[in-house]
DNA sequence: AGCACGCCGACT
DNA sequence: GTCGGCGTGCTC
């Protein structure tokens, strides 16, 4: 009886979304284990592709002849049993292909790169040999790069068996090496060498002494040797020539924090509520219990996390700490690194592919035992996890909005159950789902209602912008806010101003005829970008010149409308001429490190005012900021989405937390056209509990989560008719599958119906029995497969965060 | 995804 | 008659 490998192949389609059985050549049998990547022949031409071994079986019921694995890519499995199991579960949960999930779990560089080659195997025309092959017998076959005529000539040659096409699976993962040196002689042998030196050869003697301190197996980086001994490269090279040492390549890690100045930190003393929370978490050690740590901004959640991590590390376990991308600031990383040193690995989007790969390897080898990272870090290959923390658990960035559409919270819960490790969800403004679960006793609620040292919460003023408009000229700044900013400048204190830009942008509109400049591909207004002096589409990247004349009525009264950070900065500069303003938005922070630089400069009082978008709302901590202004609280309130109130409340609460964290009292101004809205009023009163109850009633009445599950089904096609037609078919079919308590909304065209010349239609389902629906939805995806050939794309999004 | 098989229109 | 269009189905 022969063992066979089950391989998930790198072909992301519905029909290939299953393991294929391959024979294992005898020479691989000892080495191959599940979780390794392999190269296998697949399909008619037996082109080679990458696959993941997910298991072994003894017998296959496949009728045809089994092919054999071509080669093994990895020396050690890149995915352990846990992650393999997780991938199967997650693929099903998120309606994604298993291969997509497996790829998502690994650093980018481990994704296979395929190259196609054509090789001459018969006599061919000399002209062709020169013009296409440049005299070589094999060239890369890149159809996208080649002339169409060349491609068809090559296909023709292949048909006549004059050339053959082959495929190669490339591995982009590169291990970085530096030069190291290794001693080659024994202590006595070195003494003899020393005796043979002339009296003037002091440096060589130093080198010998150094080499004598090493063990024969030691490999020391050449750089280190130079630093320790003060010897130059020339001497080391002499040592090599004389046979004292060997230069060997040493594997090194690209350290994303190498430029950081890390100061060791020690545990801080805890307040009573912090100590209670920590005790509860520590007591849950070894059980898959979920906590909701609801602590106001400034209550010291991070310190609780760090001490809880220290506790599991002391038991020889590992810890995973998830934070939103935006909180992965250098300050935060310094704090964690300062506490746990080299045991910490960080994973975030700012890393280069190489750095990410190296951090991943440090985790995989067990060298890093604490992982801090954004969403995808939830797949970190840690063994023996003792604790999982998810900070700011309500953050929307934990949900991936492309395939596989998973929520990191679900993955964290799965891993918590697998490892019998507690999961701590932390937030000042928990998501309704989580808070509701705590209410039902599914999660244990830990409350930290007080700020450290009982700093009072800042006072929040709600400014009614409707009155402002009546009383004066249109402006982004109310009289009160402006006065407050000026007051701070005169006192040498700092202000943070936030422009809420969710679903909002500045666009060009004709004052005479109302014409709005739109993207030719996407049906949405183009956004004005002053830095490039152009109009850009936020969806497809289309760019064109700023119009000076209305294309519709030729009027010159075409100008921009709405508010961008640049425009606000300009206005503020005019209103307060001497103010030093630093603007932080997606444009100014695009460059690597720009973010950190600006914040550091602001922290050093180089500026009076920090003006920015949502990104400034999270986790920044400046002691001299005593004023926070939210310029337009409404833009997130007006979204056509049931999350609107929740998002607004979260944002206002979070940004309020930026004011007055030290001994100085903070003040917050919220400008709004909806001063009576409960999300704004309750944020003003720092009353999460009442917001939770109010919002729960709204959700209950409207049959939305957490009372109902939601699913968004989206279809897109280049032809609007096709997309609409298909979706109504889907709608009719689904109706028959749904139980009586399920509600179907749509199909409707998406609010931005056309993106990149594709038309989008969607159906939203609200339902209570997930089991029944899941089967129907899986079937739907399978049925949609045949339509995919006709240009129809269908996607299913469980618990979508946007319904737009 | 990529390849082969297969069944209908315009040509060496 | 056949060469080749791309619609359909399969890949261990």
TrEMBL record:
Its EC number is 5.6.2.4. PROSITE patterns: HELICASE_ATP_BIND_1, HELICASE_CTER. It catalyses: ATP + H2O = ADP + phosphate + H(+); Couples ATP hydrolysis with the unwinding of duplex DNA by translocating in the 3'-5' direction. Residues 545-713 form the Helicase C-terminal domain. Residues 282-448 form the Helicase ATP-binding domain. GO terms for biological process: DNA recombination; DNA replication initiation; DNA replication, synthesis of primer; double-strand break repair. Zn(2+) 2 binds at residues 519, 522, 537, 540. Zn(2+) 1 binds at residues 510, 513, 550, 553. GO terms for cellular component: primosome complex. One of its GO terms (molecular function) is ATP hydrolysis activity. The keyword Metal-binding applies. The keyword Zinc applies. Component of the replication restart primosome. This is Replication restart protein PriA. It comes from Periweissella cryptocerci.
